[in-house]
Amino acid sequence: QRRVMGSRCNGRKMTELNILVFVSLIVLPVLCASQSPSYGELAANLTVPAYEAMMKDLAALSNVSKPEDAKRLRKSITTARDHLDLFVYAYPCENLTDFWYYIRKDLNRGHSVVGAFKDLYDSGVNYTHDEMVAARDLVLSWKSWMQSPATAQRNCEYLASPLLHSFNIRPKTELSAKVFWGSVDTLPRTNLTGFENFALLVDASLENANGHWNVVRAVTLSELINANNVELYHDFRKAIHAIVNTAHYFPQIFTAPEADHYVAVIFDAYSRLGKIMDVVTAYHFSLDRGQADRAAELQETLVNMWGVFISWTDDVNLQKTFQILRSYLIAHLRGRHNRLFRGKFYR
Fold it and tell me: How far apart are CA 145 and CA 137, in angstroms?
């Protein structure tokens, strides 16, 4: 059931890992087109390259790096963590030890400390040199842990050896909350290819986004900037994150070229929501530092941004976009699995 590939991570030169990444990114699309890889086979070919790309970006960060230098690393951590979450059911527990959990925990920590470092720049606040050094030191501490020989070898060997044709179905409580498989009531299926399983995930995520939309659309400015309500906003954006990123990593889940337009609309929504969240973060940074005038300016900016966003969603009919994109997933799978989905839009 497993392809044991750990030896490629142990003692090999970086040039050989670069060859592996090249083969995964260039040869895999050809392989996928003809052989319909399983969920586990996709994990074997894609997760390590995403992890290695993150480690390369991490290596570039040093004790003279500034907050704006962390942007690329934060994105590559997100990509590596996405792959871990997308392939959560492909990775086994070994001798009662769940290395998936420990790697995910490592990436969560990195996402948090690198994000806090980067936010000093994104928030636009006047931070002190000591604040920057303290935030950077946390990043460098995480870097030391990730680059330690034991951690690096463990992570690489484990990620290179997923289950190829079976699943490790974990309890929902063990999954990353409210993202990808952790946010839906759907499980991958052995009778589906890897791409079809990700189409199943996107279908459920589109249904989630559709269900959350009316609540999010009714959010007021006071609710938007209230820290207690940020989770509501985040839940919707996480559903959007699952849709756009799964579609980005696996464009094969759509067969109709017309789907590209609707994916682009949802990606635009995700981008706009991210920019709004950046201003919310900056608003709270300013309040915490007693910069009342700047906080007031940011609050006015949020009023305008939120109004523009709601108007834009009406213009593009965002809710209908969710429904239409689901129909393209149905078209992708109809024939072999015409009873696969039970979405309320097609009953």
Answer: 12
